[in-house]
């Protein structure tokens, strides 16, 4: 048994600007004869409006086979390599310190703060958990010149940017594969058979169990609630790939909710939620579906849907870097809600023994 009695903190302060990004395309034969602006405005229309791409081309951010091109009407031919250079930018404020709950040769369990994104996406390309893990590895192995030579832990599941608590990261390929299979197996069990009220705790099939705590609006009268509402994708302004929400045509999802404390004066309830599937934003969607959205959730309201489906307001222009301005409606990454990954129980990926993580400490049996 190993017990961490004092949680270690890791993390370094964020640089003022990130390093920017590059996006590479190869012109397919079907696009031969198209103009540069036609290619980008149609192939990557969710990245920027037409005038935004014109702005980027004029700014010298596009190269063709390594040469900067500033003419939007440049004619392309099949096989050319196009590279869009996104300029460095200051990412929104985010915390950088992470607590280490447990670490061995195979995995590391972190205590993630609310407001920190796990993996790169959108405006957050550098200010992520993944970056801190990379920097920590490079600092420990500074004798390795090439960054790509330094192995580093990688998260094996996600927590929403506004969610705090336990995040599991794999340090080896074997651990990554097995932990990923644990999460996939748990979701497939829910998809293939309806779990009944007799499903309690870890089973012979499920090798991982995640328990969250959440503060929701209103008073939940039942001590226990099982939610089996499917979750699917829907169109939503400002989210190019769509938004996850309650949907009769969605994929199966199951959450078990237990009441911990009722605050009648504040009209709110503290609950514990065991998720037996891993759909995106599952807890936020399920609790709002039963009429008890998370306190402070800017997106989901009673019914398991966004508060508004209205079209974006604005003049249809572009931001300083040419891309679309920030959506005027709330988006999934917005914070403010109260949700904490409180406990994880799992089979250790290499020893196959049951491991129990309890925030803020971790015990391995």
From TrEMBL:
It comes from the Eukaryota. Residues 306-329 are annotated as: Disordered. It catalyses: a uridine in RNA = a pseudouridine in RNA. Pfam families: PseudoU_synth_2. Residues 106-288 form the Pseudouridine synthase RsuA/RluA-like domain. One of its GO terms (molecular function) is RNA binding. GO terms for biological process: enzyme-directed rRNA pseudouridine synthesis. This is Pseudouridine synthase RsuA/RluA-like domain-containing protein. It comes from Stephania japonica.
């Amino acid at each position: 048994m190993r017990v961490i009695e004092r949680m270690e903190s890791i993390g370094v302060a964020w640089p003022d600007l990130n390093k920017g990004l590059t996006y590479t395309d190869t012109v397919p034969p079907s696009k031969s004869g198209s103009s540069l602006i036609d290619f980008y405005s149609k192939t990557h229309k969710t990245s920027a409006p037409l005038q935004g791409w014109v702005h980027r081309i004029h700014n010298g951010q596009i190269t063709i086979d390594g040469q900067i091109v500033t003419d939007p009407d440049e004619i392309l031919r099949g096989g050319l390599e196009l590279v869009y250079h996104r300029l460095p930018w200051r990412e929104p404020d985010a915390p950088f310190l992470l607590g280490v709950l447990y670490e061995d040769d195979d995995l590391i369990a972190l205590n993630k703060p609310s407001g920190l994104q796990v993996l790169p996406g959108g405006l957050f390309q550098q200010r992520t958990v993944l970056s801190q893990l990379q920097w920590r590895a490079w600092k420990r192995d500074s004798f390795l010149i090439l960054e790509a030579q330094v192995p580093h832990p990688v998260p094996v599941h996600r927590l929403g940017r506004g969610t705090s608590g336990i995040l599991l990261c794999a340090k080896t390929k074997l651990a990554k594969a097995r932990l990923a299979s644990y999460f996939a197996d748990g979701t497939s069990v829910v998809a293939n058979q309806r779990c009944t009220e007799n499903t309690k705790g870890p089973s012979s099939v499920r090798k991982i169990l995640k328990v969250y705590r959440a503060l929701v609006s209103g008073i939940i009268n039942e001590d226990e609630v099982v939610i089996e509402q499917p979750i699917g994708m829907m169109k939503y302004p400002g989210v190019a790939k769509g938004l996850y929400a309650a949907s009769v045509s969605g994929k199966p999802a199951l959450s078990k909710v237990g009441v911990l404390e009722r605050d009648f004066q504040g009209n709110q309830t503290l609950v514990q939620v065991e998720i037996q599937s891993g759909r995106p934003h599952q807890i936020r969607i399920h609790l709002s579906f039963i009429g008890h959205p998370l306190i402070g959730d800017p997106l989901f309201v009673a019914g398991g849907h966004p508060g508004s489906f209205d079209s974006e307001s604005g003049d249809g222009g572009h931001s300083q870097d040419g891309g679309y301005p920030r959506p005027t409606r709330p988006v999934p990454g917005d914070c403010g809600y109260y949700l904490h990954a409180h406990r994880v129980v799992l089979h250790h990926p290499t020893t196959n023994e049951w491991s129990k993580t309890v925030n803020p400490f971790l015990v391995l049996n």
